[in-house]
Specification:
The chain is an alpha/beta fold and about 240 residues long. The protein is built from seven helices and eight strands; from the N terminus they run βββαβααβαβαβαβα. The protein has an eight-stranded mixed β-sheet, sandwiched between helices. α1 (about 55-65) links the parallel β3 and β4.
Length: about 240
């Protein structure tokens, strides 16, 4: 499920500092654009990972955003829960279930305010957290890569997206694959249909793409690669608004 390895299309992971604020641990990657006016408009983005955590893929994605002028906060939700016993879906989900989703979202909301975050990009599990921030009307630009519209089980659960997406008023961009068997093709289709009648939902549904399709930046399949490239362009446009 989702991402683990670094992509050839993204830069090598850059340098970072490990920090903590509002109960959250995060990896801070500074902008690579020299001489940027420190008084310029806020360019601070928060990145929410999938169940595998802050691995090489997310470090390189954060570094890519710094090349565009952002300071990136790569949120580390799992360090206090220990390393994965093995890099498998089963082990990752076993650790993921130790999170408390509502508490996590409370801390994310507080982090946005205290650290003056202007944009949030979430993947998979992180995409569901993005949707929860939209439900809470948190004032940031929001992008969710392949979230789970039918929700994810948790002992401290958050609302199920399909139950509230029709009423969301905070703009949020969803990047979805119509062949996403992890989130469920039917669930993805339902979310896309809701977006047709709710202007706050900007859903981009990519034909032939499945879960984790940003990894297709490295694909030899033209359609899959172009889908991934388009999604990345959309993501950059939205967070820069």
């Amino acid at each position: 499920m989702c991402h683990n390895d670094k992509l050839g299309a993204l830069p090598a992971p850059g340098t970072y500092q490990r920090k903590e604020a509002e109960g959250l641990k995060y990896w801070e990657f500074d902008s690579q654009i020299e001489g940027r006016d420190p008084g310029a408009a806020n360019k601070r983005v928060m990145i929410l990972t999938d169940i595998y955590g802050c691995n090489a893929f997310y470090q390189s994605f954060a570094t890519y955003l710094t090349s565009k002028g952002w300071q990136a906060h790569l949120i580390d939700l799992f360090s206090d829960l220990g390393e994965l016993k093995e890099v498998t879906r089963e082990a990752a989900f076993e650790r993921r279930h130790l999170l408390r989703d509502r508490r996590v979202c409370d801390m994310l909301e507080a982090h946005v305010k205290s650290q003056e975050i202007s944009a949030v990009v979430g993947f998979c599990l992180g995409g569901n957290y993005v949707l929860e921030l939209a439900r809470r009307n948190v004032p940031v630009n929001l992008v969710g890569y392949y979230p789970f519209p039918a929700g994810l089980p948790n002992e401290d659960g958050i609302e199920i997206p399909l139950d509230y997406l029709a009423q969301v008023t905070k703009p949020v961009t969803l990047l979805l694959g119509d062949s996403d068997d992890s989130a469920g093709r039917e669930n993805t289709a339902k979310a896309a249909k809701l977006a047709q009648s709710n202007k706050a939902l900007d859903a981009h549904v990519y034909h032939k793409s499945g879960h984790g399709f940003l990894a297709h930046l490295d694909s030899d399949d033209d359609t899959l690669r172009k889908n991934a490239e388009d999604s990345l362009a959309v993501c950059l446009q939205v967070i820069s608004q």
